[in-house]
Each structure stands twice: as structure tokens, then as C-alpha cells.
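Translate structure to sequence.
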């Protein structure tokens, strides 16, 4: 095997390997290689290194480095002092055919254990009152079965509910009505209900949607008043401490909540979800809303998608639900121990039966590449396809798309400017390249400066759009927040929509006060999650890319409410539709019906009173 010094590793991987060598000078090269690849896997979003999938392959095609065969590799890892079994203190944990960094093994094992315990602890429910609430609150629905009603029933009857649905399937409608049913269940007792989301924008949208839905509820004024109308980011909720992995609320200092609703849960990574579930009182209800088909979190893990695996109702549960809801419930025995806590909303109220966007989403999720291309050639009014994209023509089109926004920005009214800016948005799959984020933003800004008569030396001008890329807790600005530069009597100010919703409004900052940021006329599909725009233009790279996947394409097109415009070669579209991105993880297996009894995970460094050297290494 080539000298480890010649391996093409990043700085984090090298630092971790060096730490292992200091801890165990005789550590074998095969162990160091596994550790480095485990770090790389984490950077790609994998929770662990799937040894069986990569054993015997060459991790770097340009080097003559071949990984050992699976059996030999596992034997070497088991014999190493820096590798432990589940429950051991060690920098690396070997769990079957998966190798974990210790901290992430603890996150996954503890999350599974706590979710199962929460699912098994059933709350007391007044069935007659619940049946009355469901019949009244969901009387407007004519679909059979009414999955919104069934989702609400499970959220009341369980301490854990996972509700998945695409855009327009009524997740917010469902949650505001199930919260009303929960409040009615409590009678005269008050419930502490929390609303949260991964980003400030998603939290703001959730709070606004619930406030708007209150007025139409067939409930008493007391119930309506008890519904929450403020939402926080998950980091604010937990009390994040800057870049530290520790949070203020944990199992020893739980959140003072009876119910927690988390929107856009598909964006929540494994570490954050583990901390969230640990911080919630054992008897509190947890309701997760999201779309299992969307892109997974930027960080490691695809927790929401894994929770949705193995869903279904057995005979007994289907019979009980039918009695409470009056709905015929399909019987499909779950293969996950959380299966009956998961409900999939299937009817889209946004995309009608003749919707091109809705049909496109269905064909993409089905992996139907030929059907996707055929649909885009039908000339649907809400679909447009530039099948031979040119970079110059794309910039021309984007400039025209933003003209209405530039006009609104010159007026200096924040509400009108944000409405116009959300009327059209350019999305990209990657940051670099002629169809990437950086090139498009640079080209657009150069054109806007010429159009507005602004010097190339002036960074700020009326209409510049920026995205924050670094959390600033003092200012209350967070990664992903969008700001618009607008003229005021005091000069140029950058306005942001309020993230923590105590009412409508915008916050203004001088440009010099902003944390690190980028221009945001074009944004990546990842950064667009949790947002909606009237029209979306999605540009895919002109060359094959590992970023192209079914989830990316689906997420991008479903950001649009009225129209989608695709700029992509047929080959790139077909590659995206047929590529299903899967992250290496073991949560779904731990939750499976046939899963063995879990081995308690060793405490993480953040939970240990006196962490050892091995615990310190688990921070990697």
C-alpha cells in the first residue's frame, strides 16, 4: 500500500489520521485509510462508511491503492485499539459492516432508542372527543381516504407523528387542525406548543401559514387563541452555542414543551435531530413535517426519509383508525417499528390534475426519464424547456426575468420588493461552471450595474440581493437568510424578512454590518429548500456531475407555484431522473421490525463529565 503521506486527503482527514497515530503509534495503514474515508464519507452526507459497498475497490482511481477484502478489513479493524464495538469508548466504532466516527454512531443509536421509546409511550386519549374533533375539523375534505384526517388522528393518538407530503398536499392545513384537536383533547388544561424549522425563512413561512389558517377553523375562540403563531429556528429553540456541538437544552435540561412541531424536517441532519429528540420531554408529542422525496440535509444523514421507510397499518391499527375517522384505511403491515406513526399525504391541492408541474414531479420520482422528456415536449403552459442551453442566452433570459424586481427595488418599499423578488428565481445544481452559481451571479450583477448606471467599483446598489452564509446570533441573521438592498432616506439599507415571527415586518441593516454573504440572484437548489417562488428557472450543468440526482431535480421544480423553466441538455435531465442518491446510514435498519435489540451507545464527549482522549477524537 502506498505511503499514507501520499494519499489525496483533505486537512480534516489528515488531522484525524494524525490524531489516531498519536493515540496508537502502531496503528495499521488499513485502519488509517478507513478512518480517512470515514471522514470523507461524512463530508458527502453519509453517516458511516459502508465497508461492504467499497471493499476491494480503489478509492482514488489515479492511485494504485486498493481497499482490502471485506472479511480481512473487518478483522484488521476489530484488532485495532482505535476501533471499538457498539458501546465502547473509541474514536471509531465498527457496527457490523458499517464503520462510524464515534460521535455519529452515538447520535444514530441514541436517536433510534429515543424514537422507539417515544413511540411506545402512548398518551391518554378521549376517543369520543377525538372523533368529534376530526369530523368537524376535516369536514371540508372529500378525498377518500382522507389522509389529512388520518395523519391528525395519529398525531393525537401517538407521541410521535411523521407526516410526509409534496408541495400543496396540505401539511400546514393538517398541522393547524391537528393542533386544534390536541387543544380540545386537553380541555381546560393549557398546552405548551412549540413551532420550529431548520431555517429562519421556513420558520417564518410556517408561522404565517398557521396565523392565516386560524380564522377559518370551526373551533371556539378559546381554542383559536391557544394556537401558537410564533416559530423559531431549531438552533434558537435548542440554544446553540456558536460553533460548539453543545446546546443549552438536552436530556438533563429539557425543553418546556408538551408538543413540538418541526416543519421542513427533511432538512434536519442526524446530529441536529438527535439533539432535538434528546431535549424533548419523554411524554411530549413530536410532530415532524416534510417531504421524503426532497433533497436530504446538507450535513450528514437523511433522517426524515429513513423514518418514512416501512410505513403502513396492520389490521388492528387500520380497524381502530376506521372507527375513529370513518375512513376506510388500507392495510399494509409496516416493516418499521415506527410504521404506524408515518402518514403520507398524496393529494396535491396546489397542482391540479392537469398540472404540468405536478405530473413532472410524479414522473421524476418514478424514475421515468423517457416520460419526463416526453412531457417537457408537450408544450404545457406551466412547463418550458430549453434543450440546447447556451450560457449567454441564459444570462439574457435571467436579466429579463429580474427586471420587474429591479423596478420594485427602486421604489424602496420592502414588502413590494420581496414580493417581486419571489416572483422569479434562478436555481442551479452547482456553484461552478458556466451554468453554476458564481458565474451566473457575476454575469447578472455586471449587467444590472450597467443598466442602473452603477460603477463596477460599487459593491452595493439598489436591488442587490444577497444571501447570508454565516450565522450571526447578535444580529439575528443566519445562514441562508435573503437580504435585499433598497434605498432609504438614510441611504442604502439591506432588508430581511423577520425570521422569528412576532408579527409582519422587515429588519434593516447597513451593508457594513452584515456577516459574510454572497450575491443571490441565482441560488443552489439546496439553499432553495423551504422556499416557494411563483416562477422558477432551473439550470443544470452541461457536463455529467455527481450532484445531479432525482431528489435535486424534484426539489428544484417543486419550488415553483405557477411555472417551471428548465435549461438542460436531454442527457443531463435523463441522468438526474435515473440517479437516486442514497446516503449510507443505519437508522432505518435500527428501526426495522426485525432489528435486534439495540446496544446502548457510549455517551458522546459532550455528555461525558471527563472525556477521554478517545472521546475528544469523536468530535471529528
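Result:
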Amino acid at each position: 500500500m502506498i505511503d499514507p503521506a501520499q494519499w489525496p486527503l483533505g486537512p480534516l482527514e489528515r488531522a484525524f489520521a494524525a490524531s489516531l497515530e498519536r493515540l496508537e503509534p502502531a496503528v495499521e495503514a488499513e485502519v488509517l485509510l478507513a478512518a480517512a474515508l470515514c471522514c470523507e464519507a461524512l463530508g458527502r452526507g453519509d453517516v458511516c462508511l459502508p465497508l461492504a459497498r467499497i471493499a476491494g475497490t480503489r478509492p482514488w482511481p489515479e492511485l494504485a491503492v486498493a481497499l482490502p477484502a471485506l472479511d480481512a478489513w473487518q478483522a484488521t479493524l476489530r484488532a485495532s485499539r482505535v476501533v471499538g464495538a457498539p458501546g465502547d469508548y473509541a474514536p471509531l466504532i465498527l457496527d457490523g459492516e458499517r464503520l462510524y466516527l464515534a460521535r455519529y454512531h452515538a447520535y444514530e443509536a441514541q436517536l433510534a432508542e429515543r424514537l422507539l421509546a417515544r413511540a411506545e409511550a402512548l398518551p391518554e386519549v378521549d376517543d369520543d372527543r377525538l372523533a368529534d374533533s376530526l369530523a368537524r375539523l376535516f369536514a371540508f375534505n372529500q378525498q377518500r381516504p382522507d389522509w389529512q384526517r388520518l395523519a391528525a388522528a395519529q398525531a393525537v393518538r401517538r407521541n410521535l407523528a411523521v407526516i410526509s407530503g409534496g408541495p400543496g398536499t396540505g401539511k400546514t392545513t393538517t398541522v393547524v387542525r391537528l393542533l386544534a384537536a390536541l387543544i380540545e383533547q386537553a380541555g381546560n388544561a393549557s398546552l405548551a406548543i412549540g413551532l420550529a424549522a431548520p431555517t429562519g425563512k421556513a420558520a417564518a413561512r410556517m408561522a404565517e401559514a398557521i396565523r392565516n389558517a386560524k380564522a377559518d377553523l370551526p373551533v371556539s375562540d378559546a381554542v383559536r387563541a391557544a394556537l401558537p403563531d410564533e416559530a423559531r429556528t431549531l438552533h434558537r429553540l435548542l440554544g446553540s452555542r456558536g460553533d460548539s456541538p453543545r446546546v443549552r437544552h438536552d436530556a438533563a435540561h429539557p425543553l418546556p414543551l408538551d408538543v413540538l412541531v418541526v416543519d421542513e424536517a427533511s432538512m434536519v441532519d442526524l446530529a441536529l435531530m438527535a439533539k432535538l429528540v434528546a431535549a424533548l420531554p419523554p411524554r411530549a408529542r413530536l410532530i415532524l413535517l416534510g417531504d421524503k422525496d426532497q433533497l436530504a440535509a446538507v450535513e450528514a444523514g437523511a433522517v426524515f426519509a429513513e423514518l418514512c421507510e416501512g410505513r403502513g397499518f396492520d389490521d388492528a391499527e387500520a380497524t381502530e383508525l376506521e372507527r375513529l375517522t370513518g375512513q376506510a384505511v388500507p392495510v399494509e403491515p409496516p416493516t418499521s417499528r415506527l410504521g404506524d406513526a408515518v402518514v403520507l399525504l398524496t393529494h396535491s391541492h396546489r397542482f391540479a390534475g392537469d398540472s404540468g408541474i405536478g405530473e413532472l414531479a410524479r414522473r421524476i420520482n418514478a424514475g421515468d426519464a423517457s416520460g419526463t422528456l416526453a412531457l417537457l415536449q408537450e408544450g404545457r403552459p406551466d412547463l418550458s424547456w430549453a434543450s440546447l442551453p447556451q450560457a449567454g442566452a441564459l444570462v439574457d433570459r435571467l436579466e429579463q426575468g429580474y427586471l420587474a424586481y429591479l423596478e420594485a427595488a427602486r421604489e424602496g418599499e420592502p414588502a413590494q420588493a420581496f414580493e417581486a423578488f419571489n416572483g422569479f428565481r434562478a436555481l442551479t445544481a452547482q456553484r461552478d461552471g458556466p451554468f453554476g452559481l458564481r458565474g451566473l451571479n457575476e454575469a447578472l450583477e455586471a449587467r444590472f450595474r450597467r443598466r442602473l448606471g452603477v460603477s463596477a467599483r460599487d459593491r452595493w446598489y439598489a436591488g442587490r440581493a444577497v444571501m447570508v452564509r454565516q450565522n450571526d446570533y447578535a444580529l439575528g441573521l443566519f445562514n441562508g437568510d435573503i437580504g435585499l438592498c433598497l434605498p432609504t432616506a438614510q441611504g442604502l439599507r439591506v432588508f430581511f424578512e423577520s425570521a422569528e415571527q412576532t408579527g409582519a415586518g422587515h429588519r434593516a441593516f447597513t451593508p457594513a454590518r452584515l456577516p459574510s454573504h454572497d450575491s443571490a440572484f441565482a441560488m443552489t437548489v439546496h439553499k432553495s429548500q423551504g422556499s416557494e417562488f411563483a416562477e422558477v428557472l432551473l439550470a443544470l450543468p452541461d457536463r455529467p456531475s455527481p450532484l445531479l440526482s432525482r431528489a435535486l431535480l424534484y426539489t428544484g421544480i417543486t419550488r415553483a407555484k405557477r411555472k417551471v423553466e428548465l435549461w438542460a441538455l436531454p442527457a443531463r435531465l435523463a441522468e438526474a431522473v435515473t440517479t437516486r442518491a442514497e446516503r449510507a446510514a443505519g437508522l432505518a435498519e435500527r428501526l426495522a421490525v426485525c432489528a435486534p435489540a439495540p446496544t446502548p451507545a457510549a455517551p458522546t464527549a459532550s455528555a461525558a463529565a471527563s472525556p477521554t482522549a478517545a472521546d475528544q477524537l469523536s468530535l471529528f
